[in-house]
Amino acid sequence: MKLDKKDISVLLEMQEMTLEVEGLQKRLEETAQELGLAKGRKAIHREEAVLQKREEALARAKRDLKGVTQDVHSLQQQIESEERKREEFGASDFRRLQQFEEEMVAIRAKKEEVEKSQGDKTIQVENLEKSVRELHLKHSETREKIEEREERFRAKSKKTGEKVESLRAKVKELTLGLSDNKGERFLDMATRAGGVAIAAVERVDLPHEDNLQEGNFCTACQAIVPVSVLEALDGGETAICTHCRRVLIIV
Predict the structure, then answer these.
(1) Three-state secondary-structure class, residue 37
(2) Which of 57, 111, 234, 240 has the fewest CB atoms within 10 Å, measured from its CB?
(3) Residues 159, 204 within the same domain
(4) Which domain holds residue 115?
(5) Which H/E stretch holds residue 169?
C-alpha cells in the first residue's frame, strides 16, 4: 500500500478517531461494572425469587389456618349439639349419662388440641405476613436504587452512542476521500492490530555506530527496526514493521 504524506496524515486522523471510539466504548463498559448493573439485576431476581417463595408459604399457611378454624367451628357446633341432647336424658339414665360425659371429654380435648394448632398457625401467618412486608420493602428499595443507576447509565450510553456515531461518520467521510481503498484496508488492518495500524519509529542513537539499528524501535510492538526499513522510510517509501506488520512512520 503506497502512502504519501497526505495519506499518512488522513490515516493518522482516522486512527485517532477509531481509538477514541474504542476508548469511549471501553469506558462505557467500565461504567456499567462500576455501577454494578449486572449484579444489581441479579440481586433483584434473587429477591423476587425469595419473595415469591415466601408469598407461596404465606398462602399455604393461610389455607391451613382456614381449615383449622373451620375444624374448631365444627367441633364447637358438635359440642353445642351434644349439650342439647343432655336434656333428653332422665335422672335414671346414669349409664348413658356417663358414656355421654366421656364422649364430651374426648370432643373437648380434640377441640383444645385443634385450638392450639389454630394458635400456632395464627402466629405462623402473622410472622410470614411481617416477613413478606419486609421483603417487599427491601425489594422496592433495591429496585429503586438499581433503576436509578440504570437511568444514569442509559443517559451516559446515549451520550456516548451519539459521540461514537459522530466519530464513525467522520471516519467514513475520510475513508471515502482516500484512493485505492486505502481507507478500507487501513480499517481492516487497524481491527487486526488492536486499533493501531500506524506506528512511529523511535530513534535512539547508541554509542557504537555499528549498533545504530538497535536503537530504533517500533513504538507499537517495541521490535527493532532494521536499517533497511529506516532507509526506505528516509527515502519516502512506505514501510511495514517486520514484527507486527504495522505501517511505520518517522515523526
Answers:
(1) helix
(2) 234
(3) no
(4) 29-176
(5) helix 94-176
Long-range Cβ pairs for the range 94-102 (8 Å, 24+): none
Distance from C-alpha of 13 to C-alpha of 177, rounded to nearest angstrom: 13
Q: Is residue 15 situated within a structural domain?
A: no
* Structural domain contains residue 147: yes
- pLDDT tens digits for 179-209? 888 888 888 888 888 888 899 888 776 555 5
Shared-domain flag, residues 87 and 130 = yes
- 139 in the same domain as 81: yes
Beta strands in 40-134 (DSSP E): none
pTM over 0.85: no
Tell whether 169 and 205 lie within a shared domain: no
Task: With cut-offs at 50, 70 and 90, classify the pLDDT of residue 212.
Answer: very low
Gap between the Cα atoms of 189 and 137, Å rounded: 54
* Domain shared by 203 and 98, yes or no: no
Vertex 217 angle, CA 213 and 223, to 5°: 100
Question: How many structural domains compose the chain?
Answer: 2
CB 215 within 8 A of CB 200: no
**CB-CB contact of 246 with 196 (8 Å):** yes
For residues 39 and 140, state if they share a domain. yes
Identify whether residues 109 and 151 lie together within a single domain: yes
Please state, in angstroms and rounded to a whole number, the distance separating the CA atoms of residues 218 and 244: 9
122-to-40, 66, 73, 144, 161 alpha-carbon distances in Å: 36, 10, 15, 33, 56
- Percentage of the chain surpassing pLDDT 90? 56
Q: Sign of torsion, CA 37 41 47 48? A: positive
